[in-house]
Design a protein that fits this description.
alpha/beta, single chain, Leucine Aminopeptidase, subunit E, domain 1, 174 residues, globular, binds ligand AR6
Length: 174
């Protein structure tokens, strides 16, 4: 079956999918933006699992990803990934952002996840230019999907008009 890519305007915490992706930071201890919204809606279980992960394997490096349950969320799992902080674009930011998407998708495949939703990683507090981030997100996810049968549906969830318009203009999403 061909994977469907969907564009959604709204709050990722409301989605009934197998996994939502969190734009976390390396501490995995929560924060603002989508990270704050996910921990608030998902409850303390998610933070407890993040804590166990940090005890076991340390902080989550930029571009890597880890997985927890979804706590009280409608989603079964949360995949926490750390996007790069934008520092002008000459500090490996594009590769690190690509890694964040790829490592999230790899974890999804390993955990038999069929439906997954991504926020616009790094485009809030971390300041990644939205047009450049959207291009990387769409290209990376599309390339990955062409090489796996496991994932049936990917949602790109935009929380602001500018991101929504950019994804719509990418032409890759029906
Ligand atoms: N649903 C979907 N998208 C959202 C939501 C939501 N409920 N809330 C915000 N966004 P950001 P980053 C969008 O700042 O740039 C945190 O403090 C938002 O509009 O959440 O990767 C972490 O702990 C933006 O487009 O993540 C880190 O310290 C996108 O999510 C740091 O921020 C990402 O914005 C990570 O920064």
């Amino acid at each position: 079956m061909k994977t469907q890519i969907k564009l959604i305007f709204g709050d990722i915490t409301k989605l009934e999918v197998d996994a939502i992706v969190n734009a976390a930071n390396s501490s995995l201890m929560g924060g603002g933006g989508v990270d704050g919204a996910i921990h608030k809606a998902g409850g303390p279980q998610i933070l407890a699992e993040c804590r166990e992960i940090v005890v076991r394997q340390g902080r989550c490096a930029t571009g890597n990803a880890v997985i927890t349950s979804g706590g009280n969320l409608p989603a079964k799992f949360v995949i926490h990934t750390v996007g790069p902080i934008w520092r002008g674009g000459y500090n490996n930011e594009p590769q690190l952002l690509q890694n964040a998407y790829i490592n999230s998708l790899k974890l999804a495949v390993e955990n038999r996840i069929e439906t997954i939703a991504f926020p616009n990683i790094s485009t809030g507090v971390y300041g990644y230019p939205k047009d450049k981030a959207a291009e990387i997100a769409v290209k990376t996810v599309t390339d990955f999907l062409s090489r796996t049968e496991q994932i049936q549906q990917v949602h790109f969830v935009c929380f602001d008009q500018e991101n929504f318009d950019l994804y719509q203009q990418s032409g890759l999403i029906q």
